[in-house]
Specification:
Strand content: 5-15%
Radius of gyration: 18 Å
CATH superfamily: Flavodoxin domain
Number of domains: 1
Shape: globular
Bound molecules: flavin-adenine dinucleotide
CATH architecture: 3-Layer(aba) Sandwich
Low-confidence stretches: none
Helix content: 25-40%
Number of strands: 6
CATH topology: Rossmann fold
Number of helices: 7
Order of helices and strands: EHEHHEHEHEEHH
Largest sheet: 6 strands, parallel
């Protein structure tokens, strides 16, 4: 799939981490295919995750009451969002595939990645009313989560202590990425790398590399409640 553009949004502070290894093989494999790969390394960039007044240049539409969503929507339309947001939105615009690489934090993603979504996916850019879910403004793009966990596959099974891993992905895959119009590819979950053997970890890295080799042929999931919670 030469020429396809991939944006990897990566959230781990340690270059020697398992997450870094998964990110690195994704860069290598997709580049080998002729894809144009861009990485947003959130920790390395010291990415600002907070939604603040500083994101908007010039006067607020309502100086009496700062409503971030409304203000960011107006600023997007007027071209008054901060440079770091504009730069990330440009990368998102160009991408065919958004790949999120992160460790699970508290059944979710690290705050720095949540902050990226909060600030980059503003109204007018990623969604609008109308213009959400299947009509979201990022329609035509695909998104995939590649995450690692502390818990084992058994702990994240339907009979395990946590329950099925899929239920935790509803807010990210459905509530955010699908809301913004993306089609969602099945997640890549690498369970418990920190308590696995070196051999098991190597297999997980290989499995990800192999999957990436045919990633463009995959059909998206049906991103609706039954996929997450059963019938
Ligand atoms: C704030 C916080 C909240 C958390 N909440 C949850 C939660 O809700 N649920 C949950 O399940 N877990 C949770 N965790 C645990 C977390 O998800 C895991 O610790 C994390 O996913 C492990 O991934 P890592 O990349 O950090 O592993 P690392 O510790 O970086 O790596 C694991 C091992 O892999 C080795 N490695 C690196 N590269 C390679 C390679 N190429 N091949 C083979 N091995 C390699 C490393 O040397 C290391 O020994 C939480 C952790 C934190 C800090």
């Amino acid at each position: 799939m030469a020429g396809k553009k991939v944006l990897i949004i990566y959230a781990h502070p340690e270059p020697g981490s398992f997450n870094a290894a998964l990110k690195n093989v994704a860069v290598d494999e997709l580049s080998k295919q002729g894809c144009v790969v861009t990485v947003t390394d959130l920790y390395a960039a010291n990415f600002e995750p907070r939604t603040t007044r500083k994101d908007i240049a010039g006067a607020l539409c309502d100086p009496e009451h700062f409503n971030y969503g409304v203000a960011a929507h107006h600023a997007y339309k007027d071209g008054r969002l901060s440079c770091d947001i504009v730069a990330e939105q440009q990368k998102v615009c160009e991408a065919d595939l958004l790949l999120f690489q992160f460790p699970m934090y508290w059944y979710s993603m690290p705050a720095i990645m949540k902050g990226w979504m909060d600030r980059i996916f503003c109204q007018g850019f990623a969604f609008d009313f109308p213009g959400f879910f299947d009509d979201g403004l990022l329609k035509g793009k695909r998104a995939i989560l590649s995450l690692t966990t502390g818990g084992t596959a058994e702990m994240f099974s339907s009979t395990g202590v946590n329950g099925d891993i899929r239920r935790f992905l509803w807010p990210i895959q459905h509530g955010t990425l699908h809301f913004c119009g993306c089609q969602i590819l099945a997640p890549q979950v690498s369970f418990a790398p920190d308590t696995s053997s070196q051999e098991e970890r190597t297999k997980m890295v290989e499995a990800w590399t192999q999957r990436l080799a045919t990633i463009w042929q995959e059909e998206p999931i049906v991103c609706e409640a039954p996929w997450y919670f059963g019938q």
